[in-house]
Amino acid sequence: MVTASSGDPETVLADLQLSRSLTIQWTVVGTMGFGVAVAAFGALYQLFTGEAVTFQFASADVAWWVGPMNVLAVAALATVILVPHEWLHGLAIRYYGGEPRYGVGLAHFILPYAYATTDHRFTRDQFLVVLLVPLIGITAVGVPLLIVFEWSWLVIPLAANAGGAVGDLWMSMTLLGYPSHVDVEDHRTGIRILGRETDRPRELSMTAVVWDALVGAAVTSVGILVALSFGGLFLLDALGVGSFTVGTPGTITYVVGYVNTPEEISVSVGLGVPALGGLIGLAYSFVRSYRRLGRSAGAGDA
Description:
This protein is an alpha+beta fold. Helix content is 55%, strand content 16%. Helix 1 (20-49) packs across helix 7 (206-238), helix 2 (66-80) packs across helix 5 and helix 3 packs across helix 4. Residues 1-5 have low confidence and may be disordered. This is DUF3267 domain-containing protein. It comes from Halobaculum magnesiiphilum.
């Protein structure tokens, strides 16, 4: 087969599959993305309405059922957004001449996902539109509804849509490392990029740098939150640790506050956790980039 723009033989430049390692990374980054998006949309809601977002969907009169019912409501709102998300992918596929197919799966028994795919071949820029339409479209429609009608519950599906778009953003960043004339074939668990042999991206791509920073930040932030939420209270109390605060409450330096009094035992976290995660993520990215450049130079000398 020969490309339309050149006499060079067409080459498969990359066949990007949802590997186990990438699945774990998407899960961690998506989890952090959901939390950051909840905070961002919640702050936007409070800025325009003057009211704080609360996720209280069940009446307090139902006693101990309040907690489970609220959790179920949040889970339902986070899941239902998958329908318009994938429908918008399919709408863009159809716009460019493809016939969308829909389905669901479980990647490596870790990450549940829904998908819209097709046998149609796209240009790079066409496929970027297919990837980004749900994130941009749902956000553009949902934010005005959130503010105008004061539907605070919309924060959950909007945040789930943003966090769930992590795979779309990763593929978009990867595609931007290739020239605009390359073609893209979509399949259920990844994409295939085709072009000329000379179209291969540089050894050190901006996608790799940005993604490493996001993974490092997500792993650090989620790890700190999980450790503090599930182990902090019991461990600190067992060790007899007294109340303490790390950072200044109400500022980006606030990491954690621990209260241990006869009346209360609690742990709270602040903006310092994602800020610390971001710094560690950047450091991790620089180390990974340095090692990649070292391997590339070593291969060249050989």
